[in-house]
Amino acid sequence: xxxxxxxxxxxxxxxxxxxxxxxxxxxxxxxxxxxxxxxxxxxxxxxxxxxxxxxxxxxxxxxxxxxxxxxxxxxxxxxxxxxxxxxxxxxxxxxxxxxxxxxxxxxxxxxxxxxxxxxxxxxxxxxxxxxxxxxxxxxxxxxxxxxxxxxxxxxxxxxxxxxxxxxxxxxxxxxxxxxxxxxxxxxxxxxxxxxxxxxxxxxxxxxxxxxxxxxxxxxxxxxxxxxxxxxxxxxxxxxxxxxxxxxxxxxxxxxxxxxxxxxxxxxxxxxxxxxxxxx
Length: 279
What we know:
The protein has 279 residues and is mainly alpha-helical. It has 16 helices and no strands.
C-alpha cells in the first residue's frame, strides 16, 4: 500500500536536475539574477519555453520580451524561476505510465489548469506573490504524482472507482491508498524542504472550507481545483464533489463575477500554456 512506501522518498519521485539547480541558485544568499539566467541558458529548450511563456497572452506584457535578462527585470527572479520549474516539472508527469483511461499527461494538464486559475483568482483578490500562487497550483497534487509513480495499479483502481461510483475521491483514496494525496504531498514537500506555506497549502487544499485559520493560498487553490475539475480537462476527479459558496468567496475578498471571469478565460489560457509546454 502507498501509505507504507511514503518514507522512501527517493524511490517515489526524482526531481529533474534543472529544478534542483534553480532552487540552489534561489536559496543562495550570494546568487543573483545573472546566476539564474546562466542556469536556464544552459538548457536552450527551457530558455525558449520561458520566453514563449513570458510573451503569451496569459501574461499580457506590453511589447515583446526577447531575452531572459528583460524577463527577469519585468517579472522578477521568483516569476522566472517558477516558469522554469513549470517548464521542467512536466517531465515528471510525462514519465508516468498509468494503466487505465488516464495518463500522466492528464494529471499534468489538470495541475496546469489549477495553477492558471489560482493565479487569476489571486490577482482578483489582490494577493501578492502571484507567481508563488501559480507554483502552488502546479504542485498541489504532488502526493498523487508520487502515488502514480509508486503504485500505478492502485491509482488506476482509484480512478476507476471514482469514475464508476458516487463515492467521493477522498473516501476511495483512503480505502485504496491508505492515505489522502494531500497528506502524502505535504509530507513529501516537507521532506524536500519546500517553504512552509507550500507544505500547508498542499495539506489543506481540499480541507480549506473547514479550516477557518487555513491560508488564503490554500483557499485560492481550493477554488481553482474546483473550477479545473468542472472544466473536465485532464484528471477532473479529485474535486468533483467540491462546491463554491458566497461565504468562501467572502473569505478571499472575491465575488461571483470573479469566478465567472476566471471560468470564461480558463479554457483559452490552459490551451495556450499547454501548447507552449507541449502538454
